[in-house]
Structure formats: structure tokens, C-alpha cells
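Hi there,

I know you've been waiting on this one. I reran it after we fixed the sequence typo, so this is the corrected version. Both the input and the resulting structure follow.
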Amino acid sequence: FFFGLALAEHDVDELTIALIETKAQELIPEMSAQAVSNILYAMYKLEAHPSAEFLQAVASFIDEHGEELEAQHYANILFAYFNMNIEPPVSYWNNFDRSLSKVISEFLPQELLNIVRGTGHFDHHIPESTFLAIEKALASEFQNMCANTLANCTSIMSQSKNNVSEEYMTQVEATVVSRLDSFQPRQICRVILGFVRQDHVPSEEFFRKLEATVLGSLDAYSVEDLAVLNKEYSSFARADSYSFVDTIRARLESLESASQ
């Protein structure tokens, strides 16, 4: 019922949420893993603030039934905890790592990116062999991804507590270069942010094509986009890009002056 309300995007008052939470807390020991992950997801969608008692009931469930939970359940639970900014219980992580390592290929690219973002947010280091499997799974889908997901493959991966391999960064860069014309300004900014955070220096071909793409549609870039490019692009300290950065800075200053 709670999950259905969340999916239907109904407005639910705080009293009703509290009543349902209390009842759910009583039933958690008898619930299936799917039901528990659904309840947490519903709380996130309904912007609920679960009590300490409710969270303890979930932690106890994971302690007792951790071996029964599937990787998808752990991923869903992590997604809910991340969006509610609630630290998962300690017992969650050991079961999470063990379960995840077996079924990387079953996740969609965006689900894998959600896992990376969630673990990074909670300062959790994914076992290296599992993280390499995530890299390979994402790389195998680069050509099938939309521009937004591809941009996330740099920006979100850079939030991980794991070191992203240079092989992965080179592969994602090559794919971005081949499809850069389809990227929106905000997506290009996310790509640059990801490269800078990973200390990845792109190829000359990437720089030439990106600069031509940006300059060819400069009017489409907002103040926020230009501010990112102005700050982050300078990190590459590339002499051939000085005129490009000067153009970005001049456009940024012009827009800022016009808005005052």
C-alpha cells in the first residue's frame, strides 16, 4: 500500500505516513526482502523521515536475512538510503559487497552508476575486483548509451572512493569524442568535471573537437555552465587553450554584467 502511494505520487500527510511507518515497523520481521526495499523506496519518494526505531528494525532485518537478499535489493536499499541521506547499518556493507560481486552483469548502466554514487557518498570502498567488473560492464554499453548517461559515466564515476582506471577513462573519452555533437552544454560540463576530478588529461583530438563544439553554440551556455568551464578547463593548463578560456571568461563576464 505504502509503495503504491509512492508510485502513484499521491500527496500523503505526515500523520498518515507516521501511522503506516509504525505498522510497517511491526511487520518488517515477517516481510520479504523485496517488501523491505520497497518500503524504503516509498519513504524516499514520499519524502518521509523514518524514525530511529524504524531504521533499527531494517538493520535487524538485514542482520538476520542478509544472505537472503539479492543484489538488486541491496542496490534499491542503497538508493533509498542515499536519497534520504541516511547512513546504512554496518552489517549492510559486508552483505552488499558479497552479493554485488556475483551479478554485475544483471544491472542496467544507470543502476550501476547509482551504486557508484551511493557508495561514494557514504565513503564506502567497493572491492577492487567488483569495481573493475563495474567498469567493464559500463564500457561494454558505451556505444548504446544516450549522451546523458555517457556524461554520468565520467562525473558519477569520479565520485567513487575507488580509483577509476585509465583504460576506462580513455574508452569513455573516445566514445564522447565520437558523439560530442549530441551533447548538451550541461552534459559537456559534467564530462569536463569528471576528467578533472580523475586527473585524466584528454587527447588533442578531444580538446580540438570540444572547443569547436562549445564555440559553435556558445549562446546556449548558461552562466552556471560557463562558470564550470572557466574554472575546470583551466585545470588542464594547456597553452593552446588559452584563447578558448579567454573567450569563455569574456562571455561569462558579459552575461554576469547584463544580469546585474
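Quick highlight: The two ends are 50 Å apart (CA to CA).

Best,
R. S.
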